[in-house]
Amino acid sequence: MSLPPHFSYRAGHLFIEDVSVASIAERFGTPTYVYSRSALLDAYRLYADALQGRTARGGALVCYAIKANSNLAILNLFARAGAGFDIVSGGELERVLAAGGSPDKVIFSGVGKTRVEMRQALKVGIGCFNIESRSEAGQLSDVATSMGVTAPVSLRINPDVDARTHPYIATGLKESKFGIAYADAIQAYDEVSRLEGLSVIGIDCHIGSQLLDDGPLLDALDKLIDLVDALEARGIAIAHLDLGGGVGIDYGDGDSSATIDVSDYLHRVFDRVDRWRDRRHDGKPIKLLFEPGRSLVGNAGALLMRTLVLKPGITKNFAVVDAAMNDLLRPALYDAWHAMVPAKEASSASMLTWEIVGPVCESGDWLARARPLALDEGDLIAALSAGAYGMTMASNYNTRPRAAEVVVDGSMVHGVRDREESRQLFAGEHLLP
Ligand code: LLP
């Protein structure tokens, strides 16, 4: 199989950039998440290069959806490259600020925000709140008014298009909890634009994740364009249009090999937007925002693990590894497929079909199914394409400390998160008197 960019076999050993994964496992232990700095920056540049030159058209901004991977080193890398950020909690806001991100380039998404989070975001001068209901707008209006400030808002519209992805990560259908129904959008804008303490500046949507075809994204764009026209006709000016994230990545499973080409997709968006602005708005600029998560980090990372015990059986062969569902939840939760590759290309062990499972006490604790591999106990293997929604979805189930994280830059290796220690996990717990 082909490896993601910046991963390779050299003389039979798996490398990330110029460092063997074996040397990383030796130094940092396992399980450990490893990321390639070049892969992260290359993925960001695909967006940034396409967005360059939009200034005369109103500008454009990549707001990295940090839920995909919120390690401070990665946020800082993107902040230095000029990115904005998409957040969904006060905790994520604190991370962005700690990593040196500018608050005015942050958009606050999410279907429920607490008043404390609203206040926190207003205090630092957040770029925009993506509002998902009239009630939320009312609450934000109260908070902003009580602070004597104005909150910049966009309404998240649910365009009712089928993103054709896993049902758990499709968010743009009528029956999903997200956004304001398309049919209610104009009325919602009318109401929200009359609320005190709010300034309506944008429109947004996010229809789902791991999309393999940009057709649904462009359908959503067309629907938002029609809405903007209807709103402007009513005197509600829209300064930015935010298309959300959703661009899928190639997981190496065959199904996702023909995923969206980022620069083709962005140019198709620009093309439609420019023709629309020229035709109906005398070329008046509108700013474009994108909220990519997975496509910036997914293929830049891998999870390293070692086999603990091999249990060949009658119907199935189990390879129990030291990573588990608490480290990488995607297989258990979405039936997700991650390539499993050995650190050493050649092995004297015989080739068998393995179920790669973790030590957690759940039958759902599996990382890969039916993989032909030649494995010995103690072998190092890597789950690829694990840079997105890997570490951020990790938990401490079974009181398992979360993994270490490492960034490779050429031949240098930087620890960017220490492995947790068990003691930290119960440090905030108290005995009864
Ligand atoms: N913007 C909003 C409002 C979102 O809800 C999301 C992701 C994104 C942007 C980024 O989408 P992306 O570019 O990564 O597709 N845990 C799942 C994915 C959940 C996505 C949730 N929302 C997984 O592991 O596949």
Characterize the overall form. Answer: globular
In terms of per-residue confidence, which ranges show pLDDT below 50 for 5 or more consecutive residues?
Answer: none
Please bin the fraction of helical residues.
25-40%
| The CATH class of the largest domain | Alpha Beta
Give me the CATH superfamily of the largest domain: Alanine racemase
Q: Helices and strands: which structural class?
A: alpha/beta
Number of strands: 21
Offer a few descriptive terms:
nine-stranded mixed beta sheet, 433 residues, alpha/beta, single chain, eight-stranded parallel β-barrel, Lyase, Ornithine Decarboxylase, Chain A, domain 1, 2 domains, TIM Barrel, 29% helix, binds ligand LLP
Describe the 3D structure.
With 433 residues, this protein is of the alpha/beta class. It has two domains: 7-36 and 298-425, Lyase, Ornithine Decarboxylase, Chain A, domain 1 (Beta Barrel); 37-293, Alanine racemase (TIM Barrel), CATH 3.20.20. 29% of the residues lie in helices and 25% in strands. The protein contains twelve helices and 21 strands. It has helices at 21-28, 37-51, 72-80, 90-98, 115-124, 134-147, 185-194, 215-233, 262-281, 294-297, 330-334, 422-425; strands at residues 7-10, 13-16, 19-20, 32-36, 60-65, 84-87, 106-108, 128-131, 151-158, 180-181, 198-204, 240-242, 287-290, 301-311, 317-321, 340-342, 351-357, 366-374, 380-383, 404-409, 412-417. The strands form three sheets. Strands 4, 14, 15, 16, 17, 18, 19, 20 and 21 form a nine-stranded mixed beta sheet that branches. Helix 8 links the parallel strand 11 and strand 12 (240-242). The protein is globular, with a radius of gyration of 23 Å. The chain starts with 6 loop residues before the first strand and ends in an 8-residue tail after the last helix. The mean pLDDT is 96. Ligand LLP binds at residues 65, 68, 86, 109, 169, 206, 209-210, 244-247, 291-295, 330, 334, 389.
